[in-house]
Amino acid sequence: MSTELHNSISIELPHVEGLKVGIVAARWNSQVTEPLLNGAIDRIVEAGYSRDDITVQRVPGTVELTFAAAQMARSGKFDAVIMIGCVIRGGTPHFDYVCDNATQGCAMLNATQDVPIIFCVLTTDDEQQALDRAGGALCNKGTEAAEAAIEMAALARQYKK
Fold this sequence. Notes:
globular
């Protein structure tokens, strides 16, 4: 969802009894991923859940997010998993490979797991664009990811057997 559109929407989050959220965060570009992580945690707590209901796992970079998110999803311990990363365009095609890997990995997990996997990977042209979306001038996409995790966990509960 575009930042401009989201900022104009006010949503009421559902309550998910006993909600457990796993968050996997890349250490690469930590100047961006740490504020995203903090935004996600703060929003979950603001929504009425305990910090103890959140498990954070850090991984080296964005490519490793899919593996860690898969492990969390398969553990059966979480109602939702958030993938937090940041890829900043450079002068080589590496940007495209990393972005494709994370995007396809998240899509594959959402299609094959019973736990919603929330994509909070910033893919920007420069560091300032990333910082603006990690609690800077525009928003904190980590906050938005937390809201999506709560909503999707509630949806998943509706359809559990």
